Amino acid sequence: MIQSDLDLFGGQTQRLASHTVLLPGLVLERVESLLDVLRPVLRAAPFRHMSTPGGQAIGVPVSNCGTLGWISDARGYRYTEHDPLTGAPWPALPALLVEVAAQAALAAGFEHFLADTCLINHYLPGTRLSLHQDRNERDFSQPIVSISLGLPAVFLLGGHARNEATQRVPLNHGDVLVWGGEDRLRFHGVLPIKPGEHPRMGARRINLTLRKAR
Ligand code: MD3
Ligand code: FE
């Protein structure tokens, strides 16, 4: 996609850090198609709560699709080939998600991005995601692509140490965020979602993160 296409149904591309790019509204016209491919995935692998290795509940229910899925339990944070809830392989990663991820990555300057997993996060009003790094993927030179659907969120973009200052970045329905390179291991989180009702998604936010885990 070229810049002028982006402007037709999204806002201006915003560079938030050297290798972090916000593509406002990039998937707005493909939301229905995205929801169509997510429905069967979530039927086969429903959202579920996970706990940290220390035994604390994680506030954001998750699911996955792809050859691997991210999980957390007493044994740690990791990727598995099977859904621990059903024992079945994770549902296949829909081609549409792979395509959108590659397109967004390219628009952010990362060529040939081939996602093999999608982590699906479910937020209700009041849900937050505390500051963390994403370190379970094998190759940190690969970018991550995040798609936001539903209620708006304020995303916290930190530095390479937990105590560094954070930028607050609003993320809205249809926005896509891509980060990689030297930003890949930045600390990040999500402030508590404000109460509200999204006209298409209701009182929830769904975030898709497309990754190459292996
Ligand atoms: C990281 N999800 O699943 S994605 C996660 O909105 C996760 O559900 C959040 O963090 C969510 O691990 C945030 C967005 C994001 C954006 C830019 C980043 C994460 C980033 C820049 C650097 C590092
Ligand atoms: Fe993360």
From TrEMBL:
SUPFAM superfamilies for the chain: Clavaminate synthase-like (SSF51197)
One GO biological process term: oxidative RNA demethylation
One GO CC term, this protein: cytoplasm
Molecular function per GO: broad specificity oxidative DNA demethylase activity; ferrous iron binding; oxidative RNA demethylase activity
Family annotation (InterPro entries): Alkb (IPR004574), AlkB-like (IPR027450), AlkB-like_sf (IPR037151), Oxoglu/Fe-dep_dioxygenase_dom (IPR005123)
Cofactor binding note of this UniProt entry: Binds 1 Fe(2+) ion per subunit.
Assigned keywords, A-Z: Dioxygenase, Iron, Metal-binding, Oxidoreductase
Cofactor(s) named in the record: Fe(2+)
Ranges for domain Fe2OG dioxygenase: 114-214
Protein name as catalogued: Alpha-ketoglutarate-dependent dioxygenase
Organism listed in the record: Pseudomonas cremoricolorata
